[in-house]
Amino acid sequence: MGKLAILSLAVISLAAFIGERLVALRHLSLSSRELTQNYLPNCHIIEGIEYGAEDITILDGLAFLSTGLKYPGLPSYSDDPGKIYSLNLLDSDLKIKALNIKGQFDKGSFNPHGISVYTDVKDGAIYLFVVNHPQGKSQVEIFRFVEDENALQYIRTIRHELLHNVNDIVAVGTESFYATNDHYFTNEILKVMEPLLSLSWCDVVYYTPQTVQVVAGGFPSANGINISPDKRHLYVSDILKHKISVMEIQKNTVLSHVKEVDVGSLCDNIEVDRESGDLWLGCHPNGLKFMLSDPNDPPGSEVIRIENILSEKPQVTQVYSDDGSVIIASSVATPYGGKLLIGTVYQKALICDLK
Ligand SMILES: [Ca+2]
Ligand SMILES: [Ca+2]
Question: Which catalytic residues are annotated (predicted)?
């Protein structure tokens, strides 16, 4: 074969590869999906949240909000460090309060991401686990919540080579948790290549002070994790596959695959209603708009609920959707007492009535 023929073959192969990748990416990102409006009654923007509340979790009517995330490739409209706020949903005025962090903790580089709250059955102490990215690194901070001072007492920082791109966590003890990695590589250029090449190399890591191990893998990206009320099943949001993975926790803490539930959207964090067991998901309805984050053509927001997820026929329902005119890039939704809190990656947060 002549040089020209080889060159032509190479160019044709490359063009075919790029074409196939573009089609795959359009599918992954749901880029042609039109954003609609499906509003809830009595919605209000939460005063004081301007730079994101990527994750929110509620314990007995008290919401914890992880705010001010700076994430590579996504907008960040403030140079200030991130903060954890509380919001008491039992109060009538619904005002956020910044939690003061006590102890030897570097507040200046605080960059909080996924959070999880854990109550110690032995003494009722409440712990807040926070994924933190100071200087772009990944680590998990454990705090004890001091309720009468509305403060967080810093306890310890956990770093481990397996905890390299942590997005979300679920605490299962005072020192143990499951965590999701949303990328395999730590190099920023290689990280960009992962979705382009459809690599499914992300995983779930189980941490205790005695052992750290990968307990599930094969995710294109794993952006949210939570646990069933009876602590028997873990749920992982497989954001680029538009699915929620359900896994059963075995006695040896390894996970066995149960099923995947289609959600038709790029869902991020998962909150679980402790009474009904329903899953509440903050989702990105159009991944291309989310990645571009153009203020003139903003990504929208979507909240999805899954009922009876362990049954033969889980019900997947869109509870809220917005084209970006109210809130941009929703990442979490959590209900309490007939209200729904919706947080976003880098913009506002919303509270609505559910009926
Ligand atoms: Ca979380
Ligand atoms: Ca997340």
Answer: 113 (proton acceptor)
Taking the model in full, what pTM does it have? 0.95
Q: Is residue 65 part of a domain?
A: yes
Question: Is 205 a member of any domain?
Answer: yes
Q: Which residues form the domain of 126?
A: 31-353
* Per-10-residue mean pLDDT, the chain, length 355: 82 84 86 91 97 98 98 93 98 95 98 98 97 97 97 98 98 97 95 90 97 95 97 96 96 89 98 97 96 94 98 98 97 97 98 95
Q: Is residue 6 part of a domain?
A: no
* Ligand nearest to the Cα of 140, by number: 1
Question: How remote is the CA of residue 332 from the centroid of ligand 2, in Å?
Answer: 8
291 C-alpha vs ligand 2 centroid, how far in Å? 15
Residue closest to 270 by CA, chosen among 178, 157, 133: 178
CA 272–ligand 1 middle distance (angstroms): 10
Provide the number of structural domains found in the chain: 1
Active-site annotation, residues = 113
**Ligand 1 midpoint to CA 13 (Å):** 43
Question: Binding site for Ca(2+): what residues are annotated?
Answer: 54-55, 115, 167-168, 223, 268-269
Residue 12 lies in a domain: no
Q: Which one of the ligands is nearest to 182 CA?
A: 2
